[in-house]
Amino acid sequence: MSTDSRKIRVAVRVRPFNERELEGNPRNIIKVLDKSTLMFDPDEDEDEFFFHGVKLTHRDITKRVKKKLTMEYDDVFDNTATNNDIFEVCMKPLVQSVMNGYNCSVFVYGATGAGKTHTMLGNETCPGITFLTVKELFRQIESLSEVRKFDIGISYLEVYNELVMNLLTKSGPLKLREDSHGVVVSGLVLKQIHNATELLELLALGNRNRTQHPTDANAESSRSHAIFQVHIRMVEKKTGQKRAVKLSMIDLAGSERAASTKGVGIRFKEGANINKSLLALGNCINKLADGLKHIPYRDSNLTRILKDSLGGNCQTVMIANISPSSLTYDDTYNTLKYASRAKKIRTTVRQNIVPSNVPKEFLVKKVNEQAEELERLRAKVADLEEQLRKKEQEAAAAAPGPSLALNATLLNTWVSRIDSCYASMRQALQHLIALKSKEKLLNMRVKLKEQAETIARIVTLDGSHLNEDIAKMEASVDRCGKQVANQQADKTRWQERFRQSLRSRNALRKEIAQSELATVLKGILTGKDAEIEALQATLYKEHVLQMSFTYAQENKLWHNIMVLSGDIIQQNYLLLRSMDRLDNVTYDKLKRLVKLNQRQRGVTFFDDDCKQQDRNDIDLSSNSLDDIANLSDCSEDAVDFPPDGEDGDGSTMLSVVGGAAGGAMKRSKLNDGSESEPETCSLQGDSAKEDTATDRNIFKKPKMVSRTMSFKTTSLAGGGILSRPPISRRTPTKQAKAMGKTTATTTTTATVSHRLKVPRLVVSQAMMDSLSKKKVPQSPSGDIADKNKLNVSDDSSGIGSIANSTFDICSNKDSETESLFSNVLVESNVDPQVLDKVLRRASMKGGKMTLSVSKENRKKSPKRIGKSPRTVNRSTSRTNSSASSVINRYRMMKAKDGQASTSGGTSAALPKPRAANNNFDSDSDRNRHNRLMGIVKK
Ligand SMILES: Nc1ncnc2c1ncn2[C@@H]1O[C@H](COP(=O)(O)OP(=O)(O)OP(=O)(O)O)[C@@H](O)[C@H]1O
């Protein structure tokens, strides 16, 4: 139940001069300034008064000084205002409040003859506000009759000489009593009515019964206070909510001084009582205006009855009636003073809702229903608004020759849509590129760490700290891997947002194409696209700069390492040479090092594809927005890792094919058992040139490279055997899994290794014997393997160097290749067990022998367990190394045996091992070598 504090609304109505007043030629003491202001006792405009030819300023020089009081009220009605005007302004809102459940009252105040009864009741031609109010009341009741049930009862009382009389029944005086509802007139029976006519009839009856006597001021002076009340009881049909309200309309008796009525006898007594009650009313108004707590309502029956209207739960309107005539100067002044005081009175109003005994559940149900209804209506409003908007747009689009104003509005709408679309695109692009850039930087760091790790395996003084260092590096790589994995979700999210913004832009473009402003808007779109491209270029530039900086740092480090290494190598070389301990293997390595240093392309470490891949490492993606949007997986442009083949032990992973595509291509070729030349980078054709170049090197040595057994560069899979797959592959996204294509690359290494058949060749003694008889094995192509070829294989140190490598042997059949290779090894007196181990790691395909890694030899580093899911290609390297070491151990053992047999003078069954520079087939070769190397045996 809401409560509200409101002031009494005070209106002043000035009646016209009556005939009697006009006869007396009175002065107008009221000047209405506007609808809420009047001036009491203003200057006279043309009121010149001459006495003995002299103009006097005051006509009534004995009585008054002009007050010129400006007074403000809620409403001021001048003498032209009709009862209908009063009703419209003061009473209509009051009727509305009554229907909303608030008690309301209106009372008219003023001296006798000021127009109170005229305002209240009016006449046939000009009905008063009572009639008009009741009419409006019934109009509203009828309009609400479907949702509410009304019970209406009326009472009409008069307070005459302090007696309360019922004007409708002519019964005796009634007593007033007070209960919890306020002041109640005992024995008052409400007359129930059903329509306005009944009400007006009863009103007329009451008026007839009202005490009226002619006075000097008014021929039909009302000598009592009349109180007309309409009691309304409303019941909401739906909810059962009840309201009981009361509208009181009070026509007070004249507030004049006794002198003005010139009453004597009964009239004097009447006047005294009237004055008594009005004096009490005045007191109450004063105290209420001052905000006092105690209000003397009980001083008169009138104030008791008006208690509710003045200080209770009621919205009250007071209409002060005044005459403009100077003849009623004091009465008018008093009335205006009362009205000013009454303005300050505040009443507290609240809706008079009668507590009902409707069950709570019913009310809850009703509330829920209304909430649903509200939601439904809201949705409908939203729908209608949308429809309206569309219609407006359609109308705007369809209207021939739209006005400039319309175009401007339309253009603004389009521009704001374009702006918001491109803003979201810009944001998504910035985030996406930042994430990709970060990912690439991380990948690059991993790559560099891997390289460092590879070098660390080689450059270790005694190996004591190697494991520790490797573990640290692995942990660092893992951290980078985790960072990349962590930002995958973010990247996917921004990718999706970017795609979404592209879709929105395309949709917008289509809409714009249909728009009447298409030409202008297309230009704006082009500009926005250019902005996006510029932003993209800026972001790429930043990324490339960052990458370049990192590379530059790394390069600097490598440079320092190389300078130091070169120094050490030079010293060692000189030392070995002076000791005549420079063997072929070491010499070959040094030779390659020189070539590398000279940037010679004879030996290619990365094929063209790989170089392209390297370029791609820096490139974020293609430059078009669409390409960025279509980047479904970072792995598409992730960093590929260089091979670990250059592990410094002379083993021969000379080059790798980089990139997933290259790997896939290779894989397919391996699977079908054939392999074409373009994928390989053979040394065969370039060997002459290389040798010529090498001869000019500081490491002078006779040319000893076999021409019949050519080294073939290959990669078992994308990125090579030892290449590490991109980090992003280690934590494949769902998308990547679904695609299933990229994962193929991930597992290329393992898959290929698994698929390779590892022939187990058991070399029996008989076989060895038979093979040992063949001095020169016949190649399947018909060529006779020359001596040089045998020399390479024959050299036990060469076995070590060929481990983990791929060799071309001139044969189209695997069996022949295997046989040929076996022959070479057997002829080299390789121990059968070693031979078996070597061949177990070898696979023959397409005339090519590959020493690969068997699955059982793969080991997972315990440090990897529980860490990132990265494939441990490093184990491949270890296994290869172990394979090499088996052979090398064998070689050393043989070397020892050879020394022992030489020193012990016993003739060994095994061939005499060669000295470091004893790998020559003839003395001329050796001499040539010594000549070139500057070794002069003394
Ligand atoms: N605004 C008005 N326009 C025209 N005539 C008016 C107006 N106000 C009052 N009169 C006339 O003035 C006379 C006195 O008015 P009314 O009876 O309403 O005075 P009153 O204030 O009720 O006096 P009392 O207190 O003695 O009853 C009536 O004849 C009435 O028609």
Automatic annotation (TrEMBL):
Residues noted as binding ATP in the record, renumbered to the chain: G110, A111, T112, G113, A114, G115, K116, T117
Keywords, A to Z?
Answer: ATP-binding, Coiled coil, Cytoplasm, Cytoskeleton, Microtubule, Motor protein, Nucleotide-binding
Name the segments for region: Disordered.
Answer: 664-694, 716-741, 770-790, 846-938
Q: Kindly give the Gene3D superfamilies that the UniProt entry links to this protein.
A: Kinesin motor domain
Q: Where is the composition biased (Low complexity)?
A: 868-886
Asked whether the keyword Cytoplasm is assigned, the reply is yes
Q: Which residues form a coiled coil?
A: 360-394
Q: One MF term in GO for this entry?
A: ATP binding
Task: Name where it's found.
Answer: Cytoplasm, Cytoskeleton
| GO cellular component terms attached to this protein's record | microtubule
Which BP terms in the Gene Ontology apply to this protein? microtubule-based movement
Compositional bias annotation for Basic residues: 857-867, 928-938
Q: Which InterPro entries match?
A: Kinesin-like_fam, Kinesin_motor_dom, Kinesin_motor_dom_sf, P-loop_NTPase
- Top-rank taxon of the source lineage equals Eukaryota
- PANTHER family referenced in this protein's UniProt entry, alphabetically: CENTROMERE PROTEIN E, KINESIN MOTOR DOMAIN-CONTAINING PROTEIN
Query: What family does this belong to?
Result: Belongs to the TRAFAC class myosin-kinesin ATPase superfamily. Kinesin family. KIN-8 subfamily.
Protein name, UniProt field: Uncharacterized protein
Q: Which organism is it from?
A: Anopheles arabiensis (Mosquito)
